[in-house]
Amino acid sequence: MTALIQHQSTHVTQITAEAPGAIAVLRLWGPDAVTVANRLFRPKLGTRGLIQSQPGELRLGWFGMDEVVALIVTDSNLSTPPEVEIQGHGSPLLVQSILNLLQEEGIHLADHGQYLKHQGVGWLERLALDHFQRTNAPKAAQVIWNQVDGSLRNALVEIRDLIQAHDTHAAISRIDSLLLTAPWGTRLSRGFKVALAGAPNAGKSTLVNALAGYDRVLVSPVPGTTRDLVDVALTIDGWPFVVTDMAGLRDLAADPLEAAGIALARGQQSRADLVIRLFEPDAADGEIEIHASRHLTVMTKLDLISPQEASNLPSGILGISAKTGMGLDELMARMIIALIPEHQSIHGLVKPVVFDTEIEACLNQARQWINQESAVAASWRIDELLSKP
Ligand SMILES: Nc1nc2c(ncn2[C@@H]2O[C@H](COP(=O)(O)OP(=O)(O)OP(=O)(O)O)[C@@H](O)[C@H]2O)c(=O)[nH]1
Ligand SMILES: [Mg+2]
Questions:
Q1: Which ligand is nearest the CA of 210, by number?
Q2: CA-to-CA distance for 317 and 387, rounded, in angstroms?
Q3: d(CA 132, CA 126)
Q4: 221 C-alpha to ligand 2 centroid (Å)
């Protein structure tokens, strides 16, 4: 055991985000962590360095050019070598100077994932943490956090056990209900993609600004204003969305730049999870060809027609005014209904969810193998995911 530890190297990683902040926290682990930290740490009060500290005792001093707090961290049964935590000011320059000093002492720079791995956090949970760090929509974050907490791992263990017990019927039904979560689960960290399609001047950009709550994109009465695809990230009812404003669709665009924008917009429709088709009150519905599996049809500029006309819209068409805000709550509610299954928005927060395409591929493959009566291969595939270091 001692020989093994001797051959392991010592690492340092920054635990806090690698960006300017009030404080930065670094973690040093491995056989030389305490020795090196003790050599570089100069105590401020008294004469004692780090090495004489009780585990968990905070010590104030300098590490290189900056003042830091340092402490020795041990696990409760002392089965692993002690680690050192260094807490200092969050300036990237100061952090870099500490990291440089440590590297000069032969300490290896590691990323946060390596640190989690060292702590015994499995691949599945590290992947979930990675997704968690990329979402700031509260409900999506909660769903992903439950996967960090073991929701999906437990479900995969159950499936593997069912396969091994030759209960293939139950295993397939569990796999299928998990796979049903993938279309929305895999969007939790990157957001549901919503494209706005409509003729020039339909009010797409005005709607983007109304949803964002500020003037994000250019609006003008001149048809053909928007050319580029502009992604705007939004949180609606706790879920993440990326709404894409794009060029108004028309067949005869004389301007080559507008024509290029229209080509981009057509391509974007097929990549979107949901297309919102917009048309003005005096335009005929259906003018715009939609290439998407899911879409909502919306009549814009409701403030320009009489209340009587507004209340008599054909069924399936939602009226909105991005100018007055009329109908926007209903539109957002319909976006949620179209993309997040109702039962998921209530109970799904604690359920296992397929949040990554690699997991989705694994489940599809395991299902295929069960169908080909190769239970061993199916169980191996799921085990591989569960035990990935
Ligand atoms: N009265 C009223 N005017 C609106 C509304 N929405 C948009 N408009 C006006 O319609 C014109 C076109 O709006 P945009 O949002 O630029 O339209 P667009 O669909 O983005 O147009 P392109 O970028 O050219 O494709 C602008 O003058 C807006 O002020 C609305 O709800 N009510
Ligand atoms: Mg526009």
A1: 1
A2: 50
A3: 10
A4: 9
3-class state of residue 183 by DSSP: helix
State the Cα–Cα distance between residues 236 and 384, nearest whole angstrom. 37
Paired tokens of 31: 């056989």
Cα–Cα distance, 222 to 18 (Å, whole number) = 44
First-to-final CA distance of the chain: 21
- Does residue 205 have its Cβ closer than 6 Å to ligand 1? yes
CATH assignment of 2-118, given 3.40.50.2300, 3.30.365.10, 3.30.1360.120, 3.30.1540.20?
3.30.1360.120
Mean pLDDT by 10 residues, the chain (389 residues): 56 90 93 92 77 81 90 78 92 93 96 89 94 91 92 96 95 95 93 93 95 91 86 94 90 80 85 94 69 86 93 92 96 93 59 95 96 93 93
User: b/e string for 28-39 if b means 16 or more Cβ within 10 A?
Assistant: bbbbbbbebbbe
Ligand 2 center from residue 23 Cα (angstroms): 42
Residue at 184: amino acid letter: W
Q: What is the CA radius of gyration of the chain?
A: 28
Q: Is the Cβ atom of 118 under 6 angstroms away from ligand 1?
A: no
Contact 42, 51 (CB under 8 A): no
Cβ atoms of 55 and 82 within 8 Å: the answer is yes
Question: Class assignment of domain 192-340?
Answer: alpha beta
pLDDT of residue 260: 86
